[in-house]
Hints:
eight-stranded mixed sheet, 19 helices, globular
Amino acid sequence: MQDTVASGRSQVWQQLRDNHFDLLVIGGGITGAGIALDAASRGLKTALLEQHDFAFGTSSRSTKLIHGGLRYLKQLEFGLVKEVGSERAIVHRLAPHLVVPEKMLLPLSEKRGLGYWLTSIGLKIYDWLAGVKAEDQRRMLTRQQTLRYEPLLRPDDVSGGAIYAEYRTDDARLTIEIMKTAQRHGAVLANYVRVEDFIYHDGRITGVKATVDTGETLEVHASVVVSAAGPWVDQLRERNHSRQGKRLHLTKGVHLVVAREKLPVRQAIYFDVDDGRMIFAIPRSRTTYIGTTDTNYTGTPEQVVTSPEDAAYLIRAVNATFPSVQLTLSDIESSWAGLRPLIHEDGKSASELSRKDEIFESDTGLISIAGGKLTGYRKMAERVVSLVIRKHFAQRSFQPCYTDRLVLMPQPLSHVQEAARYRKRLQDHLPMVPAEFVEAMVESFGTQCDIILSDVQQNATQHDVVLAITRFCIQYEYVQHLTDVMVRRTGWLYFNMPLVRESYLYVAACCQQLLGWTDEQRIREEQALLVLMREAADFHQQAN
Length: 544
Ligand code: FAD
């Protein structure tokens, strides 16, 4: 496989050099992936370049919810709630194994929050704007019912509650599945290729100069260049001398992961904290994760980490809400920190800034898109590609956008029962592998588990399956580094740190064999992973 992987990469670079593309997308997060899929499926000859791994930026560091954004209702952003709310059901249909319905508990307190009636009306409007099916619409709860749903809540602080519908996802896996679907529609995609500058002809952008992580350089030519560079959008606008008018305002959001038994909430919960913000605690496999913070950020987008202060803020919020829990910094198994690429508005604090997306066009033709939500990626892509076609390809005919019908997997598990039957079949096939691990694998890979397990015997252990997943990701999912596997293809560094500790040496050895690394490279890869592991969990050391 080593030759195939290496030659596959250089063939892609050759394709990038040899072709003239209709559209070149900079940035391999969910926004860039969505644009590449929309454009390629409508018939535009499309390429996409990502400087690190796909989903390296914000798109692997969100709260991992496909949600309507209840807090945006508070900011009276009805249009945003309606658009992303309605998108939830569509994205669920496109990737049912990966976008899973999740009921959210909203406890109410007499001291904080909106109170019973305002919440009841707010959630009703939320359901109505999002077109939620009758059986999934919000249900208001009495104090006793709320405490039965979540006995860990502080009884003297609960005045009632509500249950409403959201969806849980894995942001990085959603991004990678959109990328693979774009590739099936003819898009040429490359990770670890950084756009350094633009090529101009008669004052208009006609392509980009890029460097590959191997040191090679590429010139890629295209009729239109779109920057979907998330927190890096302004850096590219600067390079294009077009950073005028509106600009980005980056805010940092942190999530912590603890073992499920340390914070055994019965279902996802969205609770008020004393400073007026709201925080999620979401059970996932063997863990519960908690987030998020929202603070101004002025550092480099390349290296965003959880600080001991971020961690302490979230731990205080949890301990105040669930008094029997009493988490400490040493309970944190993992964490992640991401940047919201929001649009700056004078006089507004981090939490008050709109989450709406905006498109900027420069005089030289660079189109940049920033802001927005994971949940709204499809509509953002539709807007960008429609603009590109209207302005640059009006004389050619293209299909209208149909990504609402493009499933993100050849054989999707179309409903919850089907997923449960599929999971059961795999669990029966793998009696020696923990059921929880198989369940997480099905949520990550859906029916692609059949390909992963095609050369795995019935008496296989978890070790064998971990290697089979690694081989699959290398062969089909553009893996170049050990951290690509551990962080963005599997999420193990977030949700299964014990497995990362136990497996990283043999996963690295597998990567070495398939990607043709030298021993020195393998050691560098292991060390890079160890640094990430420390950054994600070791707050005492950082504090010293
Ligand atoms: P990114 O994912 O950052 O992608 C941009 C990419 O461009 C990066 O990978 C970067 O490496 C690449 N790039 C930059 N410069 C170059 C260059 N010169 N050459 C090549 N590549 C380049 N939304 C939801 O819907 N649900 C949620 O639950 C949710 N929770 C969130 C929680 C937090 C803490 C945060 C920060 C955001 C959350 N969001 C959520 C918002 C959502 O995650 C973002 O809107 C979305 O991920 C942004 O994606 P993007 O593709 O625009 O940016």
